Here is the input.
Amino acid sequence: MPLTDTAVRQARPRERVYRLNDGRGLVLLIQPNGSKWWRFRYRWQRVEQMLSLGVYPDTPLSDARNQREAARQALAKGIDPGAERRVARNPVDRTFEAVARHYLAGLDKLVRANKRSAKTLKKATWALETYVFPELGRRNIDSILPSELLPVLKKIETLGLLETARRTKQRCGQVFRHGIGLGYCTRDITVDLRGLLEAPTVEHHAAITDPTRVGALLRDIDAYTGREQTKAALRLAPLTFPRPHNLRMARWSQVDLPNAQWRIEHRHMKKKVLHIIPLSRQAVEIFRELHPVTGHGEYVFPCLGHPDRPMSENTINDALRTMGYAEDEMTGQGFRSLASTLLN
Here is the structure.
């Protein structure tokens, strides 16, 4: 049953600490030395917590109950009253820029761990510092409205940077979600801006996707009379359809012929995860034919005259032009579009 002022006042110390329950999580701890401490017991994320509410008689029963009810109201709103008190005692900078800097610091750690590219961090920092911080950086993150962020993004649009506006919106969304994780705001306001930015025009890489013309392309590759290493790269592209960068940067250390795999390490991939390409019988044969020629070096397709470097990024496209395929007809990147279209 609930405590009374008399029961609290007359509680005597014992050899060991003991407690008196007032109910709804409020307890009074009586120490062996006679001191009496109010505590609020609650569970947060399935873990029992204890919140100090003061010492009797400086904090009477009525004050302890008021604090208990305030803590219970916080819990009902999904707020940890203990964490809320720690924040109140140790004020932190909750401006948009401060939260964004904290987010960027986390992104930097991922870059150092080779889980994100340095280019991603550089672009994110540039977009936030250039367009968002000057307008909203000093505002508390939980006070920013969608109607205030939209003009910032529209300003980028007026410069003709449609893709930059879209990516800046995405980056702001990640900052808001980071703020939610820190407990500094409650929602990502960028979801309210969906469909309000002009969509950038997507430039598709030229690719041949008609099955009949693909057959002609493959025959032209087989008949290619240029450098053997370039021909091997051209033959591998439609068998493995990697990104042109990964193809020209292929290393012999990545090629596992006994298991018919091409394993590209996470640090060389756009999404920073290990990418395993299964090799068909024909692809394995191409690698075997090439190994006596370039297998003594690092790269599968070394640069002509500079075996310590990979072949040029223009080599594949130049070979396609030599074979008669125009720039708006077929590109090295187009082999991925070819595969995606026909396989799907």
The CA atoms of residues 257 and 284 lie 6 Å apart. The mean pLDDT is 90. The two ends are 69 Å apart (CA to CA). The longest helix spans residues 162-182.
